[in-house]
Amino acid sequence: MTHWPVPTNLKQLRGFLGLTGYYRRFVRNYGKISEPLTQLPRKDSFHWTDAATQAFEHLKLAMVTTPVLALPDYTKEFVIESDASSKGLGAVLMQDGHPIAFWSKVLSLRDQVLSTYEKELMAVVLAVLKWRHYLLGRHFIIRTDQQSLKHLLEQRVATPFQHKWITKLLGFDYEIVYKVGKENLAADALSRKGEDNNADATLQALSVLNYNWLAKVKLGWLNDPAIQALIQDLISDPASHKHYVWHDQLLTYKGKMVVGDCSVLKCMSGNCPKNWSKWLPLAEWWYNTTYHSAIKTTPYYAVYGQSQLDQALYIPGSSPVAEVDNWARERAAISRMLKENLQIAQGRMKQTTLALHRNMKLAPKFYGPFQIIQKIGTVAYKLQLPDDAKIHPVFHVSLLKRKLGQNVTAQSTLPPVSPDGNLQMEPIAVLNRRMIKRQNKAVVQWLIQWSRSFPEDATWEDYDTITKKFPTFEP
């Protein structure tokens, strides 16, 4: 609406006034604002003036500000009004007659030769797909001035065009209502916006979901040292790795995108490497509708404040259209494969997390005592550490613990660490032995007490693991 072109003739002006007048009850002082424009359609009086320009800009601003555009109310029924002209499509999303969003699209030269029925059907389908995140899981009404579309669900699908577009409406609960063309003013004006001057007729009032899978792929490259080395080699010498190409900040192999360290994308590309990008929205849907323990709900509910639509299991052969049946079978198979692969990936992550927690238990949380020699600010202290300490002596108060009692045994030296900053723990004694059953095999385990730790911090470790990591250890 804010980029609506200045009318150059009576036809364009009437189209603009028809759209704005349709919602005049939501615009305060509409008659006063539009008066310079309503005078122009009179006979031999179309002379564009500064007053008309000011009224035109004022009216456009009023149409895209409160209270014209309303926020969606999910307790009420949505209504879509669509229309098609010779060169464009238009639609309005409404509730209780109040507009929520506008949309329009210029038809390409190829689509301009389609029949009126095909254009109207295209307008309906594209409008539903545009606002699918509002319409999925609830009943809504579609109003069109193409009377034959009223019986869309009862018609026999006979042409390839119908096969292509009607299948896109699967999964939606809708009712198509015929509306006389002269009453469908808003959608009609949007479909004819900029028709005579070929202006860009893309208009939207609400943001929509965009898939960010490419950003996830690139983030996976940053976390994969092997891919980083590959990219550097290709930058230095494009022919250094056969079939690999680095162009426009994209890494491809034989024309296909390279997927790095990204669990969701790997789950898709492992079983269907040629079609993974086609089915990626299913992976994103599965992730966003899965319960997350951190937020105690699903990301979908956290963003939209409503539960997602449960996808019903498809029954093979339930559709008489072969193309629809094949598409639904493939979609169901991909969904099952995706769910299984992501559950396997979650299992691996859980095992890794448990292993990290077990290793963290081995490390004493506090060492000392050490003398406080200076207070830094209000929440930090400087300690008198050993001369061989290789860490900064200033600590936040949350990392310190007051020494209590006279008989507390505490470490007086800092533990050794590896070059990468990990604690170097070594076994010093075997406190107990046991044998367990793992995958139908007997496994010997030792209860190990680690260096610079207390006996109550001992952990059970496999005998084979200890002897391989610490060959010089003698219990």
Automatic annotation (TrEMBL):
It holds the Pfam family SH3_Tf2-1. One of its GO terms (molecular function) is nucleic acid binding. Residues 352-402 form the Tf2-1-like SH3-like domain. Keywords: Multifunctional enzyme. Residues 48-142 form the Reverse transcriptase/retrotransposon-derived protein RNase H-like domain. The keyword Transmembrane helix does not apply. This is Chromo domain-containing protein. It comes from Rhododendron simsii.
